[in-house]
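The material for today's practical consists of a large collection of protein records. Read left to right, the backbone structure tokens trace the chain's path through space. An example says more than a description, so a record of this kind follows:
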Amino acid sequence: MGGYLIYLAIIIIIPIWAQMKVKSTYTKYSKIPTTAGMSGAEIARRILDANGLSNVAVKETPGALSDHYNPMTKTVNLSSTNFHHHSVAGAAVAAHEVGHAIQDKEGYAALRFRHALVPVANISSKMAWVFIMIGIIVTSMSNFLLIGIFLMAAGVLFQIVTLPVEFNASSRAMDQIVSLGLISNTEERDARKVLNAAAMTYVAAAAVAVLELVRLILIFSNISRND
């Protein structure tokens, strides 16, 4: 019981820590203006045009840290703060989302694979726990647990594939804002801190997903031995 409580604490604490880290880092650097004095929208447009992506629109989207690239509509969507303000954090986030647009243009393999996994991950995440709970509660139906594990594995794969996609987008972002002179040398270090903090949320999500999958595999193995 004690071991399970420790495990439960870990899978709760890791995501909370990651979210607190990204929020505190973003808040800090969202108050520091860039010397270029360009808004996130302007930076995104500048990078897009420099990479032959004039067909990709930059739009404002509601919410905080709701920034994302939509490959279906070919739009870089920036939260209001990042869209209008000219902060180091906004520059980093805007460049990161454009990084995804560049990945899309170049047919980045990991991004394509993640897109292909989206419908599978959406369905499996909804169905997995139904089978898992039946398999755990009714031990004579342990095959349901195995089905749930396979469904959960699809979601875990999605989380793992997301890591190289996000890290690559951040790398592209830094290359672009530096090569185009959109930030100064000192701001480069600060922008990297914002992107690294954001990346930790994906690492935390993947780590928790893997831990939970391993725990369920061990439960299934224990049930199978006792049958």
